[in-house]
Amino acid sequence: MKRTTKIATVVAMTLPVALILSGCSGGDGGSGGGSGDDNTLTVWAWDPNFNIYAMQEAEKIYQQDHPDFTLDIVETPWDDLQTKLTTLAQSQEYGELPDIFLVQNNAFQKNVINYPDLFSEATDAADFSQFPQAVTDYSTVDAVNYGVPFDSGTAIGAYRTDVLAEAGYTVDDFTDITWSDFQTKAEDVLAKTGKPLLSGQAGSSDTIMMMLQSAGASLFDADGNPTISDNPALEKSIETYIDLVKSGVFTEVNSWDEYIGTFVNGAVAGTINGVWISGSLQTATDQSGEWAVTNLPKLDGVSGATNYSANGGSSWAISSNANVDLASDFLKSTFAGSTALYDTILPKAGAVANWIPAGDSDVYAQPVDFFGGQPIYADVVTFGASVPSNNTGVYYYEARDAVSAAITKIMGGADMASALDEAQSTVEFAMG
Amino acid sequence: MINKLRGVPAYLFLGIWTLFSLFPLYFMAVSATNTSQDVLASRLLPGGELFANIAKLLDAQNVGAAMTSSFLIAAGTTVLALIICSIAGYGFEVYHSKGKDVLMGVLLLAMMIPFAATMIPLFQVFAKLGLVNSLFAVIVPAISTPLLILLFRQSSRAFPTEILEAARVDGLSEFSIYARIYVPTMRATFAAAGVITFMTAWNNYLWPRVILIKNEVQTMPMLIVNLSAGYVTDYGVLMLAVLLASLPTVVVFLLLQRQFAEGITGAIK
Amino acid sequence: MDRRRNLTGWAFLLPASLLIVLISFVPMIQALLLSLQTGRGTRLNWADPLWYNYTRLLGDEIFKQTLFNTFVYLIIQVPIMLTLALILANLLNNPRLRWRAFWRTAIFLPCAVSLVAYSLVFRTMFATDGFVNDFLGMFGVAPVNWLGEPDTARAVLIIGLLWRWTGFNMIFFLAGLQNIDRSTIEAARMDGANAFQVFWRVTVPQLRPIILLTAIMSTNGTLQLFDESWALTRGGPAYASMSMSHYLYEVSFQRNPNFGYGAALSYVILILVAVLAFIQLRIGDKRDQ
């Protein structure tokens, strides 16, 4: 009897240890995400209908000249991809990195500067003069290119032509205008049709950030110091935004799903966002043919104001664990060198190229039925060339969140100058 | 008659709470049969899109692989956690001493630190062991939890000492008392612990996301988040995936819930 | 013999304790050391003074807001939830109740559902033109911007927590009720006690170990609350509903990673939970001699 007790106790004690040990040998030896052989690249990206689809098409194109080549694409949402990058960098387990990963443009500087060891230089992966400078700026640190731009995030104004017509307008009346023009006309549309022209998430500063970038302004100066206080372009953007909301032509909702719902269900007759929003617009199949795309209104009385901006967008990075030669050659032959690739992914995924030579292709000039036969992609490429650079700095997310908080307070009646001063000190605190 | 009237508030209360519990679930189930556009318009009636949504889901994601990984993780965690933690909980209470109370307090500290703070050192350990992409790396950190030990310790307080003494007089070894007498008596506690552990392991997200890198070892929660991470989300398909991901926990609950039913007597009464 | 038995007892604790030391305490010590360092990314140095990150927290307005939010959740939600769970478990434990399996399953179901879906459904229900406002509108209540105002956003989060976790706690109580000798309840009935008296004087005292467990568990869960804040309200509007753990995650992973500061924040959470758990143990863990 005593013996069994002992045996049982020993078993109970050693069981977990044995488990860990057996797990140890059961693992795959930690060969990691990076490619084990010479013909495979591992890729992290997040949207099967968009960037993952584009990667798969790029794989096919590269395979024409390199029949043994394969991609191993791992689907990881951006928030989690960021968490993984941070974890790998912080634990210095660079061996688990893939060869190529996709990075949000706004987060590129932050990652390269905080974790330079995650990246390889992408210098050989593209002829960067063939991309708009505003786009390559996102992934350039100290004059070194770390990313090959993928989707552009060029901002568009998309409106329901049938609703505009009901109020006696055409889309031309919303082209090359200022925000005060927009305000007048949108109020008229609202009065005549009952439909607001814009919507967005309350507490999100996306719209204001687009306004800001359209004037070439940002939340940081060239040295990376926050410029949230005493920033005339920012103040004008916020004033404009508040006027839009207060007059009812901009409907604030509380979540992304609701935002999509506003125009998909026809409650709101337009939207302003990165061109990737066209994918969500087109899920409203019953509204096919009733949409048109144009540029953005520009800020009144702000120097450098334009009708062009951007929101979102992402670039491919080559990791420090990569087969750099293969990854560079692959990117150079596809995303930075293949018209055929962009011709394929444009109609199916709505992925608008940053690569300027792709814009000359006939495919871009094809009319899109959903947008009443307008060749919107050719138009978007034209817009893209005029988008001012955006100085995201390393602390872009902190600054954007602080401004969002300030806007919420200002909407609630707080004084603008003091709310922005508070946001400024929040960002300075985060940087300290 | 009086008895019947006395039951009315009870049924009313249960009815209201059940309605509150079930309404969001009803909305989910209905949404799985609707188009994305209808879901966003909060349509409350079943639609005819179920099969289309199933086709889209199977086309977009490897549901079978994710279900398998999730199941292996949840089942493995549950079995091991029940063994390890019940033994410990039993030890804490049956062999109660001041020193063990102190140890319990110290162990409880382990659950009080947010996981985000210990994740990176933990990742380092598992990476060094070559366990990245191994299901073991997900199971091992989850099998010994202070909470579960505390649950068994607290529940063991009702375990009658007379039985213990009687068994010892009969010459049963200490471990046999645990295995042959304690375990069957504590069926309700084991059932509760099993349901809770299975559910927690099944829904665990952050750690599996970080340690399981390859596509082949994705879990259901990862699959669901993938579905909502793109520029365009199909909400009907998303709800269908959620429904599928919720089923196993419900099945486990249904299988074990008889143990909560009144009137089941343990091995000894 | 006693000594021997005592040793056997320790042997029972060994596997679990060993695992907890390896999986939790070793990383916790590393986190403690980290909390005494400053710097971005992987370039870390010892802080000067060593407790710099902790003093920094005192000047952090966002941290103070998240601390306040978390305590609002703790003070309002935990007592309501545990009381409800206890009442529900007690009702369901009555052998004369009909359709018990149905009630039990229905009340448990919410915690089986993945967070993504539940947050989506709740956001839809509490949208400005959602069901809740439609429902209240029938009684002439003006539409409320639930997720857009600080107080109502916190309220929605609390309702979400109640929905998801009440059934979870009920399971513990149901299991605990199984361990109670039914004859003590019958005896009290015989003595003429009404249902409430039986519940309060007979059931609750016997359930005390389990009530203590759920109280510690809920306190811990609420102070480390992450899921609901992250997925349901995204911490908004303007940090008004963000929990401490959500802020910790932002500081460590989503923003410019500041792990020293994040680690200090985790230790503040640890200390808060530990103090509250200690108080609860002192009050609730008395043994009836």
From TrEMBL, chain A:
Pfam families found in the cross-reference section: SBP_bac_8 (PF13416)
Matches recorded under InterPro entries: Bact_solute-bd_prot1 (IPR050490), SBP (IPR006059)
Listed transmembrane segments: none
Keywords assigned by UniProt, alphabetized: Signal
Protein name: Extracellular solute-binding protein
Signal peptide start-end: 1-26
Domain of life of the source: Bacteria
PROSITE patterns: PROKAR_LIPOPROTEIN (PS51257)
TrEMBL record, chain B:
Topological type in the membrane: Multi-pass membrane protein
UniProt xrefs under PROSITE patterns: ABC_TM1
Entry keyword set: Cell membrane, Membrane, Transmembrane, Transmembrane helix, Transport
InterPro entries: MetI-like (IPR000515), MetI-like_sf (IPR035906)
Matches recorded under CDD domains: TM_PBP2
Boundaries of every ABC transmembrane type-1 domain copy: 67-256
Membrane-spanning ranges: 65-90, 102-123, 129-152, 188-207, 235-256
Subcellular localization: Cell membrane
Family membership: Belongs to the binding-protein-dependent transport system permease family.
Name recorded for this polypeptide: Carbohydrate ABC transporter permease
Organism of this sequence: Protaetiibacter mangrovi
From TrEMBL, chain C:
Bilayer-crossing regions: 12-36, 71-89, 101-121, 155-177, 198-217, 259-279
InterPro entries in UniProt: ABC_transporter_permease, MetI-like, MetI-like_sf
Keyword Transport part of the UniProt annotation: yes
Chief location: membrane
Subcellular location as annotated: Cell membrane
Keyword Translocase: no
Gene3D superfamilies in the record: MetI-like
Keyword set, alphabetical order: Cell membrane, Membrane, Transmembrane, Transmembrane helix, Transport
ABC transmembrane type-1 domain residues: 67-280
Taxonomy, superkingdom: Bacteria
Family of this protein: Belongs to the binding-protein-dependent transport system permease family.
PANTHER family found in the cross-reference section: ABC TRANSPORTER PERMEASE PROTEIN, INNER MEMBRANE ABC TRANSPORTER PERMEASE PROTEIN YCJO
Name recorded for this polypeptide: Sugar ABC transporter permease
Organism, as annotated: Protaetiibacter mangrovi
